[in-house]
Design brief:
The protein has 1 helix and 9 strands, in the order αβββββββββ. The chain is elongated and about 60 Å long. The strands form 2 sheets. Strands 1, 2, 3, 4 and 5 form a 5-stranded antiparallel sheet that branches. A 4-stranded antiparallel sheet has the order 6-7-8-9, with no helix packed on it. With about 160 residues, the protein is mostly beta strands. β3 and β4 form a beta hairpin. It starts with a helix and ends with a strand.
Length: about 160
Amino acid sequence: MRHVIKLCWAAVASLTALVPAARADDYQLSHNQRISCSRGLAPGKLNTATCKSYTYLFNTKTSEYFRCQVSLALTRDNKEVINVQTDGGCTKKSRIFETDGKYDFDATETEPPNTNSFFGPGGYAVWAADVGAQKIRGCITISSGLGSDISKCLDMTFQ
């Protein structure tokens, strides 16, 4: 009898552990991280190299996403490294789809300075698909050069 009670408690405990996991949001990292670097010369023969990389973290349930960026700046002279600075963080963006579902996602962006960035530091494209239906939405965001970004999304049609 004790074995049956222990087995029942083990079953209840395992089901209880599964319930929050089933309701939890899943996150997906974009598959096309990029890095861009630039060099600069400063007075006194100092060299500075700055590298930036970005990625996107996507909530596959709600279609909310975060744009994440990391940067490293290295300053040196001919003999030694003088200064190393890092910075970064993630910025939350709005939902792509209005309702919860099961979504797939990818993103890419221009790397400034770039001839494709007419008004500012560039832009990015986000693609999201409802994996339970034949539904894809493409979104493009560009800098307006006037303080706020312009973002528009379009549902794809299938012919």
